[in-house]
Amino acid sequence: MDWDTLVYAGFKLTGIMIVFAVVMGIVAYTVLAERRVLAFIQGRLGPNRVGYGGMLQPLADLLKFIFKEDIIPDKSTKFIYFLAPIIATTAALMTIIVYPFGPTVTLPLIGSVQLVVTRFDVALLYVLGITSVGVYGIALAGWSSNNKYSLMGGLRSAAQLISYELSLGLALIGVVLQSGTLDLYQIVEQQYGVQGMGWYLFWVQPIGFIIYLISAIAETNRVPFDLPEAETELVAGFHTEYSAMKFALFFMAEYINMFTVSMLATTLFLGGWNGPFVKQIPWLGPLYFIGKVVFFLFLYIWLRGTLPRFRFDQLMNFGWKFLLPVAILNIILTATLQFTGVIDAVNALFKGWLGFLG
Amino acid sequence: MLALLFILFAGLAVGCAIAMVAQRNPLYSAISLIGVFISLASLYVMLAAPFIAAVQVIVYAGAIMVLVVFVIMLLNVEEEEHRVLRPRYLVPGAIAMAAVLFAEAAFIISFVGDSRNTPATSASDVGLTMSIGTGLFTKYLLPFEITSLLLLMAIVGAMSLARRGALLPTDARVIPGAQVLTRSIVDPEAVGDATPVITHSTAEAAELLQEPAEARPASRTKDTDLE
Q1: Which of B24, B44, B69, B200 to mutate to test the interface with A (most CBs of A within 10 A)?
Q2: With bands split at pLDDT 50, 70 and 90, how would you rate the model's confidence at B199?
Q3: What are φ and ψ of residue A326, in 5° steps?
């Protein structure tokens, strides 16, 4: 262990800590925002007593979770019962290190830094892999609780995740075909275009974006795909038997998952940290990134306030018989356009027209 | 540092593998197997093959084992109550297999010990996505296509095995929530009656069959199988 390795490790650890703090902060306030915005949509006030406008509510909730009684069902499979929330939260948190938050910026004392914790060749596959492991948290929680509602919720959730992960992955392949890389940083860099507006959403991938958005909402078990937690049918679904901090872990995992799929959507389709004048002022990058992610989080809350829930067979039919074929068509379309050189030609044309801007 | 990580992940893999065989609860065995796959993926990362590692996690840990866990959960297999006595003649077979395994391991160790000084041939980009993709679509195109054909056949086979409606007449349609079946299938009393029964709900079907809706057990509708 020489000095350089230690400095490198310290640098990476600091990066992870900062990203972790930012993500957890945003997650905590997403919960508050969800309650306030939903209340607004439904003509209520929402939590507004703790702190100014309810700003300290997340802290109060956390304290409550810590001090609540932790009830463990007698007939549960104890080891797995403890393991499940850990798997769920860990898997949700593990993906945040690969997302690029901003371009290269200059910091005092340190010098120029890329605003990304780590870059590697297969970042996108890493995200998909970790997401697919996250299924176990929910499925095992449902099974180990020894409760029929929990088991139903866990099974539904696992079936839903497996079904929608296919169309989600296929939607991402369109982007990969166009960019030719699995490295998220390079994918973002390629979306600079003219004045940081060459987002894949505009160039060729609108269908892929819509498929991704729908599948992502299903992946995170949110309205209108919240079958695993359908209160009217399953009490609370897979986490019926969980209380106190273990329940909080599941709750956190759900919101972290929302956040990470929003980050992936931003990175792949909305140009990541790209935006006007980002080349001149690099610190605009993180702002653009967070802004786009917050837009997605708002979309989630908005949908929850607007849409009713699917029926389970509708959910399965929609996923397998509509979303999957459309995703495959999208791949064929992208591949054709890419192979025939249409995308490059259009890109060159637009660069020529708008060259004076960028 | 690398040796330390190797010992950690290799130990984890071996430990999980032993746990998988030794556990009596099938779900614990399945979880141990997931542990084996994930430790193997970590070893692949250390061998500079990130693509293989990611695919290992996605395919084995994420897809195949989910199905296994699913089946165990659905069947709700109890713990083995008492061990079934295994036939005597299996013991020499097991010893022979173990001997072969140890011989293989010894051979590999001695072989690696001999060829320690041979330089690795351009190991820098072997495990990367780009080189794997190029290899798959140029040099190994034929095996790749044959494998995909094999997988396609497996899918078609699974479909035709799983579709219980394969024996139904061609005009019958089975969709959860909106079923169209010939009457002879829907009603066991109407043998040979081929008029299609077009309904959109259980109540409508009951009405068509001149049967009160309450008398019809819910398990008769096929869409309940999914849930």
Answers
A1: B69
A2: low
A3: -65, -40
| Distance of residue B82 Cα from the nearest chain A Cα, in angstroms | 20
Q: Using one digit for the tens of pLDDT, what is the confidence trace for A284-335?
A: 888 888 888 888 889 888 888 888 888 778 888 888 888 899 999 988 988 8
Interchain contact, A126 vs B61, CB within 8 Å: no
Q: How confident is the model at residue B101 (pLDDT cuts 50, 70, 90)?
A: very high
Mutate one of A83, A90, A125, A314 to test the B interface: name it (highest B CB count within 10 A): A125
Q: Is the CB of B128 less than 8 angstroms away from the CB of A121?
A: yes
* Helical residues (DSSP H) of chain A, grouped into ranges: 3-41, 57-67, 78-94, 123-144, 148-179, 184-190, 206-219, 231-234, 244-269, 284-306, 312-317, 324-340, 342-354
**DSSP per-residue letters across A165-217:** HHHHHHHHHHHHHHH----HHHHHHHT-TTTT---TTTTT-HHHHHHHHHHHH
ipTM: 0.80
Q: What is the pLDDT of residue B124?
A: 60
pLDDT at residue B146, rounded to an integer: 94
DSSP annotation of B181 = E
User: Which alpha helices (DSSP H) does A42-147 contain, by range?
Assistant: 57-67, 78-94, 123-144
What residues are paired with A106 via a beta bridge? Answer: A112
How near does any CA of chain A get to the CA of B83, in Å? Answer: 21
Q: Are B26 and B2 in contact (CB under 8 A)?
A: no
Cα distance between residue B70 and residue B78, in whole Å: 15
Is B129's CB within 8 Å of A182's CB?
A: yes
Best of A1, A90, A132, A238 to disrupt the B interface (most B CBs within 10 Å) is: A132
With a CB cutoff of 8 Å and minimum separation 6, the contacts of A241 are: A71, A73, A76, A81, A145, A146, A147, A150
Task: Look up residue A111 and give its two tokens.
Answer: 């010098």
- Rounded to the nearest angstrom, the minimum Cα separation between A315 and chain B is 11
Cβ within 8 Å, pair A133-B223:
no
Query: How many Å lie between the alpha carbon of A206 and the closest alpha carbon of chain B?
Result: 26
| pLDDT confidence bin for B196, thresholds 50/70/90 | low
- Chain B residues lying within 8 Å of A122, measured CB to CB: 50-51, 53-54, 129
Instruction: Name the minimum distance, in Å, from the CA of A167 to any CA of chain B.
Output: 14
Helix ranges, B77-224 (H)? 90-114, 129-137, 141-162, 183-186, 202-208
Peptide bond just before A224 cis, omega within 30 deg: yes
Tell me whether residues A133 and B57 touch, CB distance under 8 A.
yes
**Average model confidence (pLDDT) across chain A:** 83
Q: Do A129 and B54 touch (CB under 8 A)?
A: yes
Q: What is the pLDDT of residue B36?
A: 92
Kindly tell me the sign of the dihedral angle through the C-alpha atoms of A100, A101, A106, A109: negative
Coil/strand/helix, residue B200: coil
Instruction: Inspect the interface and report whether the beta carbons of A152 and B227 lie closer than 8 Å.
Output: yes
In this predicted structure, what is the pLDDT of residue A43? Answer: 87
Residue pLDDT, tens place only, A223-260 = 788 777 767 777 777 778 888 888 888 888 888 888 88
